[in-house]
Amino acid sequence: MNIQNLLIKDSNLLKKLNKKLNCSLLNILMPILTYLGAPSFSIIVIIISFYKYSIYKNNLTFNLLTSILLSTLICYILKHLVNRIRPFLLIEDLNIKKIGIDDYSFPSGHTTLAFSIAICLCFSFSNFSIIFLTLATLVGLSRIYLGVHYPTDVFIGAFIGTVCPILICFL
């Protein structure tokens, strides 16, 4: 499969998900869920972990901070190397919601941050892993729902956000 076919399939999947999932309840929930991957949310998580759990959970704050920094750096570099234009600027008739975004879509920074946080929290609070991973996945889906990312943007963001904490926690 060449890159052009992948891009076409990516656009088609985005259109299907963006249009088929559209409903009034998700129009309210998805803009809220998307901010669980925002930089401001990650700062709040780090501060809470520092004050509440740094003594009790081995290096949670350090793991969160370094995982978030590493994954954000990788995401930033890829965004500026690839320069992929956001889908709502190229595809007509997407259901989009007004949210703050930067210039490029690949990879999804919100999804990257959400998975970095979720994976670190899974290592420290394994009983709640399904909740953390579900919320991170919903952040990724919200980015597609809002029309600001292609599915591959979200997939690669999830991959980066999963690998970085694993590397940090096990090295």
From TrEMBL:
UniProt key word Transport: no
Principal subcellular localisation of the protein: membrane
Membrane topology, record value: Multi-pass membrane protein
Transmembrane parts of this sequence: 21-48, 60-78, 113-136, 148-170
Keywords attached to this entry: Cell membrane, Hydrolase, Membrane, Transmembrane, Transmembrane helix
Listed GO CC annotations: plasma membrane
Gene Ontology molecular function terms on file: hydrolase activity
Domain Phosphatidic acid phosphatase type 2/haloperoxidase: start-end pairs: 59-169
Cell compartment(s), UniProt: Cell membrane
Superkingdom, taxonomy of origin: Bacteria
Designated name of the protein: Undecaprenyl-diphosphatase
